[in-house]
Amino acid sequence: MGGAKGWKFRIDVISLMSMTPYKLDSRAWQESWDRQQEAYMPDREHRISAMLDVVDAVAPEAPGDPIKILDLAGGTGSISLRALARFDRVGITLLDLDPALLAIAGASLGERATLVPADLRDPGWAARLPHRAYDAVLTATALHWLAPQRLTELYAELPAVLRPGGVFVNADHMPDDALPGLSRRLVARADARREGRYATGAVPSWRDWWDLAAVDPVLAPLVEERHRIYSEPHSPEWLPPAAWHLEALRAAGFAETGVVWRGGTDAAVAGVTPA
């Protein structure tokens, strides 16, 4: 989403939030989101920490220069919040399309980050960014909703928003294609454990979380707006192995590519732009 349409989206989100006298309890919603996400990814904190280790490795060496991070499809700002806690000097841009998640991110991050509403399905998404030459572009468990052709195109668009020697990291479900049988068993084991946690009420499911958001005084109109935005069916989840991502990143022009973290059938792949 770009241009005037993108700005209208931003104004609509602000207007919807101002329609209620209630204040969004961003801390509670962040905690609830984290618990819901950890049901899918028990090692979620480990993967985000590994991603930030990569950022630390490419951080500007000049004293006082901020680390510029683009949190791509950043949702509620989970990565951004952890980057702000870890680094003394960091400038955050968070890009997402979902108005409810952006509202939580905005309430949590405040003036510490720039929020950009944009649709990654639109090739013009990068025109919405406040600047280019980011040190790092980070994303986790989000790009699997893009169709294969669009994800390939997105990877080719990323070098233009990174500085020379900058890094892109994508953490998601990326099974090892050399272990198909074992991967299936690992996924089945994780699914059973997650369903057990749902059954005991230990964590909310994805659907339960959105049902709660839909009755929150602040988030309810934003959830309705979300339904309008996503009224057309999106692409089904597409979860290729890490090898596919690495090949696509190489084809996109990244000088170095590789796996920087793995946990079971999940992985984080990285691409470094030519220096």
TrEMBL record:
Residues 69-166 form the Methyltransferase domain. It holds the Pfam family Methyltransf_25. GO terms for biological process: methylation. InterPro entries: Methyltransf_25, SAM-dependent_MTases_sf. SUPFAM superfamilies: S-adenosyl-L-methionine-dependent methyltransferases. One of its GO terms (molecular function) is methyltransferase activity. Keywords: Methyltransferase, Transferase. This is Class I SAM-dependent methyltransferase.
